[in-house]
Amino acid sequence: MKEPNFRKLITENETLILAGRDAKNNEELIAQVKPDEEVFHTAAVGSPFVNIKGKPKKGDIEEAAIFCAKYSKDWKTNQSDVIIHRFLGKDIYKTKDMNLGTFGVKKRKVIKVKKELIK
Question: Domain limits at 59?
């Protein structure tokens, strides 16, 4: 079977961040997330799921949130601040009636990414 082709970012701290490219790729990304790893998605539909591999270091969460915003439909459509949801792998769930690439989240935090930070 072919290895999933995720978008990748190495932070200033040399932490690996992965992002999905489409609905199928988001499914593959969520399948490899560990329970205590950080995951991000925009509040609006049409975003990659983004996963920080391992324990985040200072600045990694902001870099992951910006990375998520940069590839979202919300950013491409509006070019304004983007609201990001941050949650842990253990808080993600999927039911049979959810579409490909769609997941539910039990607990989340909200991050606002200012448009000036998205490049």
Answer: 7-117
